[in-house]
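Hello K.,

You asked for the raw outputs rather than the summary table, so here they are, unedited. I folded two proteins back to back in the same session to keep the settings identical. This is the first:
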Amino acid sequence: MDKQFMVSLLIIIASFALYIGIAVYNKARQTSEFYVANRGIPAMMNGMAIGADWMSAASFIGLAGTVMLLGYDGLAYIMGWTGGYLLLTFLLAPQLRKYGRYTVPEFIGDRFESHTARLIAAISTIIISFTYSIGQLSGSGVVISRLFEIDTKVGTMIGVVLIATYAAFGGMKGITWTQVAQYIILITAYLIPVIFMSLQISGNPLPWLSYGEVVAQLGEIDRELGITEYFTPFTNGTKWQFLALLFSLMAGTAGLPHVIVRFYTVSTMKAARWSGAWALLFIGFLYLSAPAYAAFSRFILMTKVVGSKISELPAWTTSWINTGKLSMADKNADGILQWSELVINKDIVVMATPEIANLGVFVIGLVAAGAMAAALSTAGGLLIAISSAFAHDIYYRVINPQASEEKRLKVARWTIILSTLIAGITALNPPGVITQIVAWAFALASGTFFPALLLGVWWKRANANGVIVGMIVGLVVTLSYIFTAKYGYFSIAGITDTGAGIFGAGSAFIANIIVSLSTAPASIKAQEEVINLRYPEQMTYKNGEVWIDGTV
């Protein structure tokens, strides 16, 4: 075993021991602890947990690689994923927290007084979270396969076993505190390499200030090689695709059930707002660093790898070729590696860059641990969302309302194990790269939950018929566009499968509004509850009057 392998393995084992210790200490013993951590998480800690839940393998592993290969067009991911948190924090999170339910499907079922709406929302939650979890398991496979220099599929199945064991044990209570530790590890692992690369390339330890100069140099290199300049917009798609993807990611962020449920774990509306503010700060550290990471990685590849003799390439290339995520071919038989002859998967850029930049075995091991933390943190939240949708919203609220707490916890844990196994099998041959798969989940969330929640919170005329038809139409339109755009080569205005959410959300809004206006309004009680959501926690709207702490 080489030194790099041992250091990486020891760091990952140490981090896993920490996670398992936290999960055991915070084991969920009641359903309120399993689903919403007994609503006792402080706002700042919850913001950190949201950051870890949010900064998945797609953000940690895939984001910088996407920006590195797509350039300007990759910025849609950064702007969409960050901007969506503003929508969620200001338009939905505090109001949903005030309603006081465990899950998004439970809010929809009770707000619209409909078991049918609850069931459709639960099924949508499972579909969205399952799609998202495929990307996380695929990301864990990339990390494990590189660590052990094995095929990515084997690494994925190892990740399945680890994640299923870890998530089924602690529930939301254990996962929340584990995610706090995971955030600290993953953000440290992300920032150290980019700071070292900034020092190495520019002599400036602040990458956020130095990478602009590197981007300018990349433009000169691109012109010399005769390829499209790195910062030229809309070279990998139309401007309509850019805008559609931007919308899908923003609206999807505001509708993701596993993110929304994190705001249920705090005690008040005020704490929910502060959780969102803290989360934006913690997320910003990574998202402001991703463009710098991408620029530095591309610069190092183009100046230190491209143009080298293929027979004299560094050892790291062989290791990554063994994972199936990197390939090189001397197409013109000149013995020199050209940029066009290097095929690098977006998903390995962050993992490979510390090796490419020769940053040392400790940094390489730290990045591996950070990538695992990112995949595990989000996977845990997704699995809780799937488990809650089935065990709480379908099994308990619809199938067996008399089920004991012990029975409900047992069903919840088995749901996690089975869903992880099925998602892992699907991730063995993923239908796309990590960021693409995750973008589908966001498109589905924007087409189903974003219209339902936005209208459900802010439009008292929205009724059960409208939300049922809206969610079905949004789900069908989004899924249909994803499949036809990816496999049928169909597109509107150049919008690809990742931008499908704009069509799903648009059709869902229209269907919801038309059907709601064409049918009887919701009950007076439901309409008063909607108006009540708009007031601070100590205020209550009732019979046309606003009460403050029980007094008109």
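The second followed immediately with the same parameters:
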Amino acid sequence: MSDEHPENITPQNDIIGRASATEREPNTADRFSFWIHPAGRLNPFDIVAAEHLEQSHTYGLVTNIRHVTDAAGHLSNFISNDFGELVDEPNTPRQGANVADVSVLSNDKEIYMPVQSEARVRFADEAGIHDALGIDTMAEKEKREGRKIRIPAGLIQMSNGTDAVAYLDVDYVLGPEAGHVNISGISGLATKTSYITFLIQSILQTLSSEKIAVILLNVKYDDLLHIHEARRLEDDETALWSRLGLRPEPWPADRVHYLLPWGKQTQTTGKPNIFGDSIPPGASFYAYDLKTTAPKLDLLLSHVPDPWDTLGALIGEVSQGLQANESKWREIRTWQDLLSKPPLSENGIPQKFGNIAASSVGRFLRLLRRAVQTRQSGVFVSQLSTRMTTLEKEIGAIKGGHTYVVDIARLTDVEQTLVFGDVLRTVYAMYSGELALESDDELPEKVIVFVDELNKYAPSRGEAAESPIVEQVLDIAERGRSFGIILFSAQQFLSAVHPRVTGNAATKVLGRTDSAEVNEGNYRFLDKDIKMHLTRLDKGELILSHPIYRQPVKIRFPRPPFLQGRVKK
């Protein structure tokens, strides 16, 4: 530190500058600026404390840092350098200062008058950061109600070395106040999945895990097929887990149930249709025959545009007839029967069915044949054998404290949509009372469902934005938390997902995002300066927005303590 500055900035609580209000840029109740000591160093997302009225402190989030000089314009600086001759010393030395723009978070005495000019500004300490974000009120709520409220969600790290745990209020994650978590960004290899699994582990370790069940859909390679296997952690990773008050442990093997898809070669090889050669212990193989899939035919063809509801009407007739075992459907037992026998087809020719024209029946048969025969991965079978199960049966026996990993990585898009819709519909029916449970065991109080690439199932625009699968996702997003169903979701672009889904996610997490995406309307809740910072986040850095916080904060989180497979074929 240079001796020419008498006020050194080495201790973290020393003054780093003073508030500055000008005629053209006044301080307000929501924002203030301060000049930074010439030796001071800080970054956007640092949290500072400004001395305020009645010995209070106003806390704020640094959103931008500017350098200002006494030059009237850039031309003045050009002229002062001998008209651009790049001289060693300018003819007219300029006086300059670094100025930070700050968005007000809170005041510890609820005084929201503008920060006065010349008020001294310091880095906030850990207690100040918690005060600024409202985390201190969570601690008070814990003491008052005698239950766990704070969920560790990451570590806030400041430029001066101070750090603080970022906590979430469980009532705004799992309900009843609000619910659901959504994460977006192009942060890199498995970053979004890593964060969601970290957050779920944090929830399970902090709360009573016996009251919570988890369903994870594995959509990429074998990323989530090894969550029971421990990974060797570096010392700094272990330290970060410890700082967050959590244990770096994989999922207990006896509490994980892997549900893997039946494949075309499974009958002979015994290997399910998954990436990688190793089969997780205790895995079950799921498949779809016509009988068990009849109630879900609308999900199977939900990707098909149906503006006149002709397809929907026929699917309804087929589904109802098969489930009720009506006389004209009694000979239809397999997918091939449905495609080639009456009442829909005779001698390979589509037949008129009720008020539905033969041409519409033919379209239905072509679409169905493509889905369950010509382009299928093997998950559609004529009959279920003793080696197969159904997702409805497995999810229907869900237990608190257990995690269910449903692999869909190698399925076709149509099959993935069916499986995701099947999981959501089954869970929703169980918790709403529409589906009778096979056992007398009580349902877990909460069930967390995680899916990546949510934009495939609930897109923001296009004809697919109005389909049975979207309706199912919207039901979960808008009414799920009242039943105890919480959706944790991820996608690369927030704007690509149905706004009613992301709008109902109380907690939003943002990774690195490109500049075109941040200008979409879905990001209007962010300060314009914070939007630009999104484009240059490092791997492992995320922006966390939570209802308790007045502004989003930047956090770091530890890598998962379990193995993350990435087997490519």
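The CA atoms of residues 368 and 374 lie 9 Å apart.

Happy to rerun anything if the numbers look odd on your end.

Regards,
P.
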